[in-house]
Amino acid sequence: MKVLIIGVTGVIGSAIAKGLSDKHEVIPVGHSSGDLRVDITDTNSITQLFKTVGRVDAVVSAAGEMFTGPLDTMTEEQMKFGFMHKLLGQLNVARLAIPFLNDGGSITLSSGLASRIHRPGWSVLSSVNIGIEIFSTVAALEMPRGTRINVVSPGAVTESLEKWGDSAPLPIHIGTPSAEVALAYIGLVEGTANGTVVDVGGVGTETDLLDT
Ligand SMILES: NC(=O)c1ccc[n+]([C@@H]2O[C@H](COP(=O)([O-])OP(=O)(O)OC[C@H]3O[C@@H](n4cnc5c(N)ncnc54)[C@H](OP(=O)(O)O)[C@@H]3O)[C@@H](O)[C@H]2O)c1
């Protein structure tokens, strides 16, 4: 299969590429680096990417920056950033990818644990993640030519927790290795699921959840 991966330089994207590359042709798409680049907040950039690459069997998005912050101080600009980037950016990737999918091809997007775990400071992030998930579930009813759309909702990733250290946006201390998280994306690319949301990885420990 020809699999285009957006966010391929990231923690999860690079693990997906590694996991797929033995059996499939991976088309890596960067943002600030790489031969092929895209800005998912820019519709023209997404359209240009698909026109350049042409038809593929799968599109995977492991991109989307998030905003977290307290309700009483958040600005409209911060809310817009949260919604425009991870939510609208990925939904536009999905919408614009459809004509470039081979019959039976798939789209896999990324949400995250904030759709299930609700904490102070996450009102925008949780809305964004749930938005991605419900969009996919309903869009699946309209996918043409046997094409499919699904979402992976990762828990905290081990390598991300290591990278973030004390500045982690998630108050969680136990992660799941990226290679394991990648298996959920690979399963959706290679399988037949449509309109599903796959939760992968935990949310840390009971103590993490109580540690608000
Ligand atoms: N890691 C976790 O613990 C975790 C947990 C739950 C959910 N998630 C979700 O999983 C997804 C991937 O997370 P990650 O931790 O792998 O992210 P990451 O390591 O920060 O990587 C993000 C990737 O997205 C690219 N990117 C950034 N802005 C972009 C834009 N405007 N257009 C296109 N690509 C862009 C980055 O490229 P540049 O570096 O060149 O900008 C990079 O390749 C995200 O949606 C995230 O919210 C992650």
What's this model, at a glance?
By secondary structure, this protein is an alpha/beta fold. It is built from seven helices and six strands, in the order βαβαβαβαβααβα.
Descriptive key words:
single chain, 212 residues, alpha/beta, Rossmann fold, 6-stranded parallel β-sheet, 6 strands, globular, binds NADP nicotinamide-adenine-dinucleotide phosphate
CATH topology title: Rossmann fold
The percentage of residues in β strands lies in 15-25%
Largest sheet: 6 strands, parallel
Radius of gyration: 16 Å
Principal-axis shape equals: globular
CATH superfamily: NAD(P)-binding Rossmann-like Domain
If you had to describe this structure to a student in words, what would you say it looks like?
About 40% of the residues lie in helices and about 15% in strands. It is built from 7 helices and 6 strands; from the N terminus they run βαβαβαβαβααβα. The chain has helices at about 10-20, 45-55, 75-95, 125-140, 160-165, 180-190, 205-210; strands at about 1-5, 25-30, 55-60, 100-110, 150-155, 195-200. The chain has a 6-stranded parallel β-sheet, with helices on both faces. α3 runs parallel beside α4. The N and C termini lie far apart (about 45 Å). NADP nicotinamide-adenine-dinucleotide phosphate binds near residues 9, 32, 41 and 160. NADP nicotinamide-adenine-dinucleotide phosphate (NAP) binds near residues 10, 31 and 32.
